Every structure is written in C-alpha cells, then in structure tokens.
Amino acid sequence: MDLNSLLYSTLQITVTDGRAFIGHFVCTDHDQNIILAQAEELLPKHLLDDPEERPISVGAWGGREMGLVMIKGKDIVKIEAQMPTVVREERDDVT
User: Fold this and answer.
1) Rounded distance, CA 12 to CA 58, Å?
2) pLDDT tens-place values along the chain, 95 residues long
3) Residue 29: which residues within 8 A CB-CB, separation 6 or more?
4) Cα–Cα distance for residue pair 95/92, rounded to 1 Å
5) For residue 63, what is the DSSP state?
6) What's the pLDDT at 53?
7) Residue 75: helix, strand or coil by DSSP?
8) Which in 3, 17, 21, 69 has the greatest CB count within 10 A?
9) Over the range 76-95, which residues count as b (16 or more CB within 10 Å of their CB) and which as e?
10) Which of 89, 62, 82, 74 lies closest to 16 in space, CA to CA?
11) In this predicted structure, what is the pLDDT of residue 24?
C-alpha cells in the first residue's frame, strides 16, 4: 500500500522504544518521516504503571497531547490506519 493513500487518515504509529503516536497523517518525505497533527503519545503499559510517567494532559485518544509531531521513518515499527466511523442516519420520510 502506498503511504500517500493514507493521507489525512488517523494513524497509530508504534516506534522502536515501544511508544505509539496517534494523530492525523498530514505529510511524509523521501525518508518516510511522518508528520502527525493533533497527535497524542501513548505510553507502553510498563510506563503507565509509573505515576511519574503518566501524562498530565490527556487527549481524546487517552494519551499525552503532543500537537504536531514528526516521527523518523527509521524509528517506525508499525503503522495502523484507524478506519473512519460511518454514521448512518435513519429517516422517517423515506418509503
């Protein structure tokens, strides 16, 4: 799959140290570095058990709010695309 086909999708990216970042995919470059907007950092479970590592500000996905982040392509272990939620509206006036 071409990375550009995921542009503007919500991605969750896991990096080599076990952290994951989730946000809106807005840009990539020839080194496959990825820019996420409205990103949050999701810590691995062993760090969440440490009270000093817990995020002060929790975002919509439950992680530490980061804003705009750049993730180096060489540090990426896994990329997961979040499927958009489709809301189906029921209408009474349709026969």
Assistant:
1) 16
2) 688 888 999 999 999 999 999 999 999 999 999 999 999 998 876 655 555 655 555 555 668 889 999 999 999 999 999 876 555 556 565 55
3) none
4) 8
5) S
6) 55
7) helix
8) 21
9) beebeeeeeeeeeeeeeeee
10) 74
11) 96
Query: What gap in Å lies between CA 30 and CA 66, rounded to an integer?
Result: 24
List the one residue out of 37, 43, 81 whose CA is nearest residue 63: 43
Taking the model in full, what pTM does it have? 0.73
Pairing of strands 76-82, 64-71: unpaired
Exposure string (b/e) for 30-41, b if CB count within 10 Å is 16 or more?
A: eeeebbbebbbb
Rounded CA-CA distance 14/60 in Å is 18
Q: How far is CA 24 from CA 1, 15, 65, 81, in A?
A: 18, 16, 13, 10
The token duo for 69 is: 């982040």
